[in-house]
From TrEMBL:
TPR repeats lie at residues 150-183. It comes from Nitratireductor aestuarii. This is Pilus assembly protein TadD. SMART domains: TPR. Keywords: Repeat, TPR repeat. Pfam families: TPR_12 (PF13424), TPR_16 (PF13432).
Length: 279
């Protein structure tokens, strides 16, 4: 009984470490003005673009602020315009303003109660705000069984991972990959699913594939750097991170990773458990 309790406590502390590490780009984010972070098991954001054609996820903090301000003014003028509202909610979410993003999507879902695209975006906004059961319901209502959308399958999987149902989540990721082979966002979610269950070697396999896949963004590649660093290969993790960040920012991220692992006594136990699983 004590062993089970200890293991559960270690698992809980590991999850806390991942949450803390999810904020570590954070170190880089403070330097660059970016507010995005390493994504750990979250619902992937759509690769929406602003009117100029640039991806929101590639913008700096000041650029995101300017985009949110501009789109926000258009939204105020016509809050029932679906395209404007979706863009506004997306840029708010990428900026870290999840509560505001969810408020925009709640209103839009009322105006478009049967629209699949709106329901899908609403589900993602709910998940980003931690409202997982309502998010799961919204995403499932948006799906059509006879013509499944791979994005919705992946979104549903990410929510199930956060609800502690990794087997069901991975089945959905694989269905999504059958429809959209080698899709970076789905491979990344699959890798994070294994990471959350402390299977670091499997996580690395899928995160490496995700990082090398067409369309992989900076957050996907930083997830890959994270899982490499979690296995103690700090030099390699720094090299991977340096492809996305400046050398100084990559060094700061790895230093933060080292300190987090050093401070968390459960890490050695988790690492030992992982070795035992591998025989």
């Amino acid at each position: 009984m004590r062993k089970t309790t200890t293991t559960k406590a270690a698992q809980g502390r590991f999850a806390q470490v991942l949450v803390a590490l999810a904020l570590t780009a954070v170190v880089a984010g403070c330097s660059t003005g970016r507010r995005d972070h390493i994504t750990t098991g979250s619902v992937s954001q759509a690769r929406a673009a602003n009117p100029s054609g640039n991806s929101f996820s590639s913008m700096s903090g000041p650029q995101l602020d300017a985009a949110a301000d501009s789109i926000g003014k258009a939204y105020v003028r016509d809050p029932k315009n679906k395209g404007t509202a979706l863009q506004y909610a997306n840029v708010l979410q990428i900026s870290g303003r999840t509560d505001q993003s969810l408020a925009v999507m709640r209103k839009l879902a009322i105006d478009y109660p049967k629209d699949r695209e709106v329901l899908a975006a609403y589900g993602k906004a709910l998940a980003a705000s931690g409202e997982l059961e309502p998010a799961l319901d919204a995403v499932r209502r948006a799906q059509t069984p006879e013509y499944p959308d791979w994005r919705l399958l992946s979104a549903e999987g990410a929510i199930l991972d956060q609800l502690g149902q990794p087997d069901q989540a991975r089945a959905l990721y694989r269905r999504a990959l059958d429809i959209q082979p080698n899709e970076a966002s789905v491979l990344s979610n699959l890798g994070i699913s294994y990471l959350l269950q402390r299977d670091l070697q499997s996580a690395e396999v899928y995160l490496k594939q995700a990082a090398e896949a067409p369309g992989a963004d900076s957050r996907v590649r930083q997830n890959y750097a994270l899982v490499v660093g979690l296995q103690g290969r700090f030099g390699e993790a720094e090299q991977i991170a340096a492809r996305e960040l400046t050398r100084e920012q990559a060094q700061a991220n790895v230093a933060y990773l080292r300190s987090m692992l050093a401070q968390n006594n459960s890490w050695s136990q988790i690492a030992q458990e992982d070795k035992k699983k591998r025989g």
